[in-house]
Amino acid sequence: MVAVNVLIAGCDEHRRQPDIGTQSPSIHKLQRLNALMRDSDLEDTVRAKLENDPHLKLADLSVNADAVRNEVTLSGTLRTHAARKKAIELAKSAKPGVAVNDKLNVKPGA
Cα–Cα distance between 61 and 65 in angstroms, integer? Predict the structure, then answer.
């Protein structure tokens, strides 16, 4: 009877332990990096990249970030599709694997 109780207790303990092997190591690295980088840090990094581009520096763009989800949302109006593409590329280069939500408008002559 004691052996049965030990066996049952061991099985129950196994169920309580998290399954560490279900996520890939790259996901763990990304989660740690996200935890270290706050939303404002990610926003500042993206803004700095946009301000270093002479065409985007003058644009009135909004940058909102969610560092935990590793996402950045860009919004505002640009004059050309090339400027829009450049803004998205620069935002993506701010942090590895960052997703960019594009809410940019293109209005020539704006």
Answer: 13
